[in-house]
Amino acid sequence: MNKYLLKNPKKRFTASYVIALSIIALLSIASQIVIRSVLNKQEKDARVINISGRQRMLSQKISKLALQLDRAEDPGEFGTIKKEFATIIDLWSSSHYGLRDRLPEMELQGENSETIQQMFEGISQNFDQMFEASQKILKSSNSYEIDVQVSQILRNEGSFLKQMNTITFQYDHESTARIQQVKLIEMILLGITLLSIFLEAFFIFRPAVIAVDRYLRETINRGLALREAHDNLLASEEKKESVQKELYEQLEKNHELQVNINRDLELKINERTREIQEKNEEILAQSTELKSQNDLLATANQKVTDSITYATKLQYSILGYRQNILESFKDGFILNKPKDIISGDFYWYYQTEDLRFLIVADCTGHGVSAAFMTIIGNLLLNDIIVNQQIKSPNDILSLLDMELYSLMNLRNSQKVYDGMDLGLVVINEHQRIIEFSGAKRPVYFVGADNKINKIAGSKSTIGYSSKNIKKSFQTETINYQGGDRLYLSSDGFQDQFGGNTNSKFMQNRLIESLNRTMNYPMEKQKKVLEGVFDKWKGNNAQTDDVLIVGVEL
């Protein structure tokens, strides 16, 4: 390279600089391509997550409209609701297929991951059942023809909603993973860029400067040789002048070349340094913006979590402390595992001189909305049992049903289809009898034979009813002795999905688990039940709130 540079240093230096600048340009372009690619994917991810989240709302809207169609009292009302129902079904189904197949016409280009594809395969049965029932409803002309289809929609809506939540979270998780990946790529490209600058300075600019220096030294040496020739040609004044002029001109050209090369080199180095600084400032600004967004999300999430956690404390303060209840019995336990931070299951206890009232209730749904129902149920029970002094279990449930329905619907223009299932026992210590009445929840009683006897409650629920039927609650009487046990529970334990077949735990397994631990102290029995539940659940999400209250008389 030096030999060629001595012949033409300007061209050689220009070629070296073009190579170096091209490498930096390619790295900058690659970085921009990566960033723009991620921004485009983020826009698509945002739309996918938005439509996925909207599916949850649409599935709930379908269930609500189906129930309204079931209760439509005249053909005109039925037709109006059915038009809205048809619009929602069309949007819901097109969104489902758009997300599943990533249809370009919905601006959902790209492909789902293998995990999300498997999730869509898992949700397909619920979707097909709901869609099939919806199509039959749209072909019907009267509300009395669609009872079976409405039940089919309600039966599949909960599972569809849960799995759609999982799909939405998976979309968000994959989007976040891509952002982390591009951050890593960006850091790698920055490192390569800085390394390239160092290598260019060491292998291109440094040799070029050395070659220029050698060129100048060779030029000076040639000038000295010319001066020596000039001394040898003193006899010829004309040649002397010619040699001197030639030497002067050569030195002047060499000086001008050196000045030009140094000036060009300084300008190009300054320009490249400015470009690197601008790129670093751009990367720093993007990093700062991402950190600010992450901080805002973390703050918002913490505020919501803190509010719900505080609501849990308020709920416990209203419903009563576990230890105060358990101290009223010989032994006992309360197993309470909310699906979310705050629970939709609750227990209620009240004691008079001769009677003890114990209730376990399961409100519709779970989370914050169901927690509101627990407060309403607690207030109504206080009024009925404590204030009005109603003592008969079936009268208590009948009055609770009437007051809850009135509170939720008589003052509202739209019906509220929320309620609760519960089991109620009234324990008379003097007469040694237990009176039980249940609304879709049983009581498990264990006598001297150490075997569980299940006493089923009424098939009616408290509050809303999907059909216009007269509700009836009966009272069952049980004689007991000291040491007998009884258990009240919500349906969360038996409805948990898990095991090798990813199926429900079921009531028979719950009874079997209680039987196996019947000779244990109540606290140890509680720990065993918790272990059985966690092992069955495995890595699955918790299906519903879990509440079991067991006491020894």
Fill in the keyword field for this structure.
2 domains; alpha+beta; six-stranded antiparallel β-sheet; 13 strands; 553 residues; elongated; 11 helices; Four Helix Bundle (Hemerythrin (Met), subunit A); Phosphatase 2c, domain 1; phosphatase activity; NarX-like_N; transmembrane; five-stranded antiparallel β-sheet; single chain
Q: How would you sum up the major sheet? A: 6 strands, antiparallel
Give me the CATH architecture of the largest domain, please.
4-Layer Sandwich
**Helix content range of the residues, please?**
55-70%
CATH topology of the largest domain: Phosphatase 2c, domain 1
Fraction of residues in β-strands: 5-15%
Number of helices: 11
Order of helices and strands: HHHHHHHEEEHHEEEEEEEEEHHE
**Rg measurement, Å:** 41 Å
Characterize the structure shown.
The relative contact order is 0.07. The strands form 3 sheets. Strands 2, 3, 4, 5, 8 and 9 form a 6-stranded antiparallel sheet that branches. The protein has 11 helices and 13 strands. The mean pLDDT is 83. α2 (9-70) runs antiparallel to α5 (147-232) and α4 packs antiparallel against α5 (147-232). The protein is elongated. The protein is of the alpha+beta class. Helix content is 65%, strand content 13%. A hairpin with a 3-residue loop joins β2 and β3. The chain has helices at residues 2-7, 9-70, 75-101, 114-139, 147-232, 237-319, 322-326, 368-387, 393-410, 507-516, 522-537; strands at residues 331-337, 345-351, 355-363, 419-428, 433-439, 443-446, 452-455, 462-463, 476-479, 485-489, 497-498, 503-504, 546-552. The protein folds into 2 domains: 9-207, Up-down Bundle (Four Helix Bundle (Hemerythrin (Met), subunit A)), CATH 1.20.120; 323-552, PPM-type phosphatase domain (Phosphatase 2c, domain 1), CATH 3.60.40. Residues 226-282 form a coiled coil.
